[in-house]
Structure formats: C-alpha cells, structure tokens
Amino acid sequence: MSEPIVRVRALSKNYPRQRVDASPWARLIGRVWGWTGALDDWRPLNEGLPVLKDVELDVRDGEILAIIGPSGAGKSTLLHLIGALDRPNHGTILYRGEDVTLMSPGRLAQWRNERVGFVFQFYHLFPDLTAEENVLVPAMVAYSVSAYAAKRADLRARAQHLLDRVGLGDRRHHHPNQLSGGEQQRVAIARALLLKPALLLCDEPTGNLDRKTGEQILDLLWELKESDQQTYIVVTHDDRLAARADRVVRMEDGRVVGEETAPVRAVIAAKGEDAEQTQVASVPPGVRPPPDHGNAGA
User: What is the mean predicted confidence (pLDDT) over 260-274?
Assistant: First the structure.
C-alpha cells in the first residue's frame, strides 16, 4: 500500500455567525468594527458556525479518492483547506510530511501553485483570454516577467500539448464565449495540469454539464490520470464518478462517517428525487467492474 501524500488530522473549520436582526446600535458598531452582532452575543459569534469537526483523512499517493455526501456536509470546505485556499481553525494538513497550515503566506502560495491543480464546477476562465492563454495563467503567476519570457516557448509548447490531449488543439485561439461548457471544462483541466502538479483537486467537475458531456470529462480525467500518475481528490454527487474511484469516503455534518476501500467499483443510487441519498457498494476482491463505466450498478 502506498504512503499517504496527504494526512489530515483533527481538522476543524468555523465560519463567522452574523445576526440578521441586529439592533441599530449593533449596526452602528458594525460600521466601525465590521461586526453585526449584539453585545451579549460576542462569544457565539466569535466561535462561529462549525463546518468541519475533527476530520481525519489519509490520501494515498497515486489514488483517486472520491468524497461524497449531502450538500452542506463540508466536502468542498475540506477540499479547499487541503488545497490551501482557506485556513483551518484547528488541526493539521500534512503534505508529504510538511504541515501546510504552518507555511508562511508566500511559501503557501508557491506550494499551491507548484503542487496543486484545481478543477471547479464553474470553470473560472478569464473571458478576455484565449484558451491557450487561460492554460498559461498558472505559469504567469509562478514566474517573474523575465523568467516567464525565458520559458515562454517551452510553456506554450506544454499548453498546446495539453490542449491537444484534451481535444482542443484546433480551438486554442478561441475565447471562452466561443466554447461550449464541456470545452471550457477541458480548458480548465489543461490549465490545472500545466505545471505538472502532484495533486489534482476537483470540486464537482461534472456538476455543470449534461450527462453525455460529463461522461466525456470523466473519460478524459481518467485517461490523463493513467498517463501522468497524479493523485486525485474529487468532491462529487455524480454516482458514475464515485463508481470509478479507487476509494470513496462519505461525509455528513462536517465529519467523515464512512469509507469504502479499494476496489470500489459500484454505486447504488437510492430511488427517489434526492440524488444525494447515495449508497456505496463495494465489489469483492477479484470481481472486475463492467466495461461500461458510464452505467454504474451493483
């Protein structure tokens, strides 16, 4: 079994509470102090709303880990903390033994840029940049003007290679408004892979796509994973995606409440309108999944 690339220990995150019925006096204070609570509510306001509660999680090097659970369970918050987009209130996040929570802001920005790639449900492409220029954004952030100029030819070749791999080699000069949703997500995937990060964090990568396009994005992600051997952490409500992961953990109410170890290859969606009531079924060792991953079933 491979060693964990990420270790999460006793991780907690609170977000500030705010009163919607603050008194005029409290609102006046809020103008000065940026606080909208009543004076006798300082302590609960300061403690905040708990979103993550002593989360413990290991992510193995080279695996695809799916995180599932109902909305509001803390899945995206956990992903953002692992990727250093936010800071926890308590706990540690170890990346190859180094505590990310203790890094200085400058070191943290460098680590995030070099080691982590992000793919979001909403593509976050710059509308005034072409597909190729959007892919190059992480390098523009990573290097100084002179260093970027010196590496520009190699970086452009890398960006063009990635766009070719995601099937958009002939669209690299198009702007986001000239691309479909699926094509924009492909650009976002290429952007996330530009600097060859060891860790790819995906937050609902198929959540904004129709079923057919979502299947194509899943196929693409898994194809890239096979060739580049990165570690994926994927937050999802998509049964098809979870069914293809090496391991699945379930979160509820800010905690990890269950795990299915490899080989996890089947997801049974509960009947009814609530797609979040998903049960994960583990296939016994030696049983191979059906060849059509798009029709996950047990």
Answer: 45
